[in-house]
Amino acid sequence: MIKRFLNISDLESLLKAKSEYGSKCKILAGGTDLVVRMKADMIDPDTILSIRNIDEMKGIIKGKDGTVIGALTSHTSIEENALIRKQHYPLYQGVYEIGSPQIRNMGTLGGNIANASPSGDTIAPLMVMGAKIRLMSRSKERLVPVDKFFKGPGKTVMADDEIIHSVIVPAGFNKKNSGFIKAGLRKALSIAVVSVGWSLKDDKLTLAFGGAAPIVTVAEIRKDCSAAELKKKVLNAISPISDLRASKGYREQVILNLVNSVMEALN
Amino acid sequence: MKIRLKLNGSWREFEISNDDTLLHVLRDELRLTGTKRGCGNGECGACTVILDGETVTSCLVLAASVDGSSITTIEGISPQRGLHPIQEGLVANGGVQCGFCTPGFVVSAYDFLSKRESFTMDELKRALSGNLCRCTGYKKIVEGVVAGAETMGKEIEND
User: pLDDT tens, A117-152?
Assistant: First the structure.
């Protein structure tokens, strides 16, 4: 039972409410994960802070250290943004693959990050672009590199009084030097069995693996490394489980296949 | 708590519980039963409505969060008498069997078509990808929507 439901329409009120209710409250953005978990009785929050009307946390702007994406920006808005497609191609591909039109209209970038699923379709893209997450509380603000943000499934470094304000993504990632591939069980409305994000800078290839470990993991390799070395590094970076979507062995094989298709396209 | 919604063009005010979904309010409080309850997890699209200009699965929307919003349901798309061209297209092309998924498909198709003058078949199929049908398969549904789009004067581009 939700005892308290607060509709919040500005950032300052959100920070105040978050410091007051802390771990007793849940932030409701798009609801595509939170409401599902509430209905399944996996969580039973005492207080809901609904933030869909905080316009200052929506939108995409060009900043000096990269593109700043407000945490409340919907996947649809990200997909339709020209700057994202030109400069952050893996993120474009990531949001393109999420759920369905309805889910992309509702779901937000901040929500996908905060949910901290090992299969979150925006996370591997943000990893290979070296994105930073701007966290805010009433008393302070900090930037956390995305590869230092996740602690486990559903677990992050965020304190009880902190919120995700925005994400800062370095530019320069186009379809020639970066990408994201998702393998699901069907095209729409599927959670990734596994996914691979990649980016190439000079001779260094950064790979990020979704759905293959408790958090999205990263491996860095040389573009011209041997097939044996590549396989070893990839398998070292992942520790997949068997679950309802796929077995451990299947996940390892699909990850290797996806990585090989990236290498073939590059060489 | 009390909320106000602009529902199919007119403002309505009513009392809801914090836990109520928009789907529950529409179907069980307002008796707008055209919107269907399918999976309840945002996966089947039977409960699709247009919320502030975008399609959403109303089973995942907490009604308390949309106070002041504008909502269009299937009842707001279907005319008082007769059918909308999309509905006519679906009927004429065998795109309706049990009919349970149909309102959701019509809402998704209506939102897609009302935002553009022309489209490709790939764009249309992607726009309908959040709606599941377990009877007909999708071919006849797509053909029905295309027939409706043609009646509406929309142009189909090559992929």
Answer: 998 999 999 999 999 999 999 999 999 999 999 999
| Token output for A187 | 């095209």
What is the complex's ipTM, to 2 decimals? 0.97
- Candidates 3.30.470.20, 3.30.43.10, 1.10.1040.50, 1.10.10.10; correct CATH number of A4-50? 3.30.43.10
B126 interfacial to chain A (CB closer than 8 Å): yes
Mutate to test the interface with A, among B129, B131, B141 (most CBs of A within 10 A): B129
For the segment A209-247, what is each residue's pLDDT rounded down to a tens digit?
A: 998 899 999 999 998 889 999 999 999 999 988 887 788
Inter-chain residue contact B62 with A3, CB threshold 8 Å: no
For residue range B74-124, list pLDDT tens digits in order: 999 999 999 999 999 999 999 999 999 999 999 999 999 999 999 999 999
What fold does the segment set A183-266 form as a domain?
Enolase-like; domain 1 (3.30.390)
From the CA of B59, how many Å to the nearest CA of chain A? 9
Contact at 8 Å (CB) between A164 and A133?
Answer: yes
**Residues of chain B positioned with their CB less than 8 A from the CB of A28:** 62, 65
Judgement on whether residues B102 and B128 belong to the same structural domain of the protein: yes
Q: Which residues contact A10 (CB under 8 A, 6 or more apart)?
A: A54, A56
8 A C-beta contact, residue A148 and residue A157: yes
Comparing alpha-carbon positions, the chain B residue that sits nearest to A1 is B19
